Here is the input.
Amino acid sequence: MSLATLMRTPAEEEEKSIFALARGDAAARERALHALYERHGPEVLSFLVRFLGDHALAEDVLQESFVAVHASFDRYDPERPFKPWLHQIVRNHALMALRARKKASGLVEKKARAGAEGSLDATREAMSREAVSETRGALEELGDETRALLVERYGLGRKLTDLADAWSVSERTIRNRLHDAAEQFARAVVARRAKGGPK
Amino acid sequence: VSRDCEDFAVLAAARALSVLDEAEEAELDQHLASCPACPDLARELEERLAREAAVEPIALPEDGWRRIQEGLARAKAAASAGANVFVRVRCSYCHGALERDAAVFCASCLAPGHRECFAEHGRCPAQGCDETRIIEPTVQKPARPRRTRLLPVLAVLVGGGVAAAALAPSRRPANEAPSTLRQDAVKIPDPLGVEAIIGSATPDRIVEAKERAQKIRDESLERARNADSEAARFVSEEIRKERAFLEDKARGGTMAIMNGLSAAGTHPYSLVGSAEKFGELFHRYAKGVAVEGSAATSLKDLRDGMTLTYGEGSFSLDVRDRGDHEPLPKDLTIRGAGMDKTLLTLDELSSNDEVTNLTFEDMTIDCGDNYLTDLRSENPITLHLVRCRVVGFDMGAGGSVMLAAERAAFWAEDCHFEAGYGRTPAGFGNLFRVRDGLLARLDRCVFDGLFRSVYDTNQAATYVFTRCRFENVSERSIRDTRDGVHFEACSETLAPSDAVCRVKRHLGDLNPLWKNRNR
Here is the structure.
C-alpha cells in the first residue's frame, strides 16, 4: 500500500468508489460513467469548445470521449489520478476531430480551387483567405497540440505535474513545450503588431 | 519593438503561463521598468491570452447523457455483431479509415496512409521516419524458392544443435532430473527430412547455418546454467523483504502504522499533526555502539543501531562507499558536536532499499552540490534531522532538490534550511520533490533565503510546519498552498518581490575554520 493511497482527498476517495462501481456489471459501469460525466463533463466541454471553436463539434467529441472512457475502464489504474487520464482521451479525440475537419475542408477547398483556376475568382479567393487569416486569433497559428497544451495550462490552470501525467512526458518537457508555445504565441502577436493588423 | 524586446515579449507570455524561473522573472521586471514600449506589449499579450485561451464554464447539454447512452448502445451492438466485425487499417496521418485500394505505404517503414495525406505532410508521418517516397501495392510475385528451403534448414539445424547438446554427457549428478530445456530438445520431431534438405542446400549456407545453430545452442545452455542461481537470488531477496516486513509489522513499526491508518480510513493530518503519534514512526528498536566517525573507515562496517559521532571540525562521508545495493543499517544515528561546530559533507544519500530511522543530529550538513537524499524507491523511508543546518543543495536550475522521496516520513526539529550555498544559488533550490508519498513534519525550523519552493505542491504529500520561521523567502515559494500543507504558529519575513539571490554564500561565513571547504 502506498502513501499516495493514504493521502487521497475526500474527492479522490469518492472517485475511487466510482471506479469500484466501474469494476462491476454493465449497469454499475454505466452508473459509474454517469457519475464521472456529471463530475468532469462541464470542464471537458468548456475545454473542447475553446479548443475546437465549434460548440456542436465539441459536444460530439464529448460524447465520443466518454464512450471511449467506458470502453477503457479496464485499462485505467485507479491508483493514478483520473483527470490526466481523461484529458488524454479527450485530447486525442479532439485532435482526431480537428484532423478530420481539416481534411474535409481541404478537399472542398481543393475542388473550389480547381473550378476557379484561371479566372479572377482565384485571385479574389486568395485575398479573402488572407483577410480571414488576419482576423483569426494569434493562438490559431499554433499547432493543434501546442494549442491544446496552452489551453490546458492557461485556460484550465492545470499543474505541470498533471500535464506531465496526461501527456506522458516529464515535467521538464512540459515546461519546455510551454516555453515554446509562449514563444510562438508572442512572436505571432509581435508580427501582427508590426503589420498594423487588428489587435 | 526591437529584436531584444521581442525576446522579452516571449518571457512575458511565458510568465502568463507561470513557467518562468525567478531569475527570468526578475530580468523581465527590470526590462519592463526601463522600456517604454514593452509594458503595453506585455499587457496585450496577457489580454490576448485571456481572450483566446481562457476557458469559460459551460453547462452540459440537456441531452448529453442520452447521447452518450446511445453511443454506448451502438458500441455494444457493434461488439455483439461478431460476424460483422472487421479490421480496418487507418491512415497514419489523418487517422481516417483507409480502404485497401486507396492505401499507399511509406517506402522505408511501410506506414500506411492516403496518397493525399502523404502529399500534404511532405514525408512519412511515422515518428522518426523522414522518407519522402511511397510505394503502392501491386500483384504479389511468388516467393523465391531458395528462401522457402533455407528457413526449414535453419530451424532444423537449430533444433538439431540443441538436441545434440541434450545428448552430450551431463555435468549434473546422476540422480538429478534433466532440465526442461533438454527434455524438450530431445522431443523435437524431424518431419521435414533433414538429410534431403541439407543435401539440396549450398555448402556455404550449410556452414553458416551450422555456425548460427552452434551459437544459439551455446547461448541457450549458458542461460540454462545461470537460471538456477538467478532464481535462487530472486527468492532469497523476496524472503528477506518479507521477513523485514513481518518483523516491522510485529513490532508495530512504520508499515504497521501505515496499514492501520489505511484500515481506519484516517486522514494523514491526524498522524503528522501530532508530534507524539508522528514520533512513533521514528521509534528506535536497535541499540548499537557509538563509533568515532573520523575513525570509521567504511560505511560497510556499520551495523543496526550504531551511532557515528563527529567532533568539531569538517568531515566528509561518502555514502556511496557502502555500495549501491547494500541497505543502510537500521536506526543509524550520525551525530555531530553542534550546528556551528561540525560540518559534514555528504555525497548524495541514495538507496534502493528501506531506510529505517536514519537520524542526523547537531551538525551542519553540506549536500556538496547534490541532493541531501535521493530515496526514490518503493520502500518506506524514515529520516529524522535534529538541530541540523542543511546547505548546498541548490546547485542547478529548477531541478535542484534537498530531499527527493517516493514514500517517506521526514521529521525535522530545530533545523535550519538555508539557500545560497550551492553552485547556482539564484533562487533555484527546492526543498522537497515527491513522487508518490511524503509525510513531513517540521518543528521550530528556520527557512532562510530564496528557495524555488519550500514544499512540493504534489497532492501526495502532507506537510505540517509548526512554529517555523521563514526569513527572506520569496512569497511564491510559500504561497502556493493546497490541502496538504499546514502552517501552525509560523512567522515570515518576505524578500522583496524583485529580490534575486545573486550572491553566493560561503561555508566560511558560518565558521571561519570551514573556509577551506568553500567551493
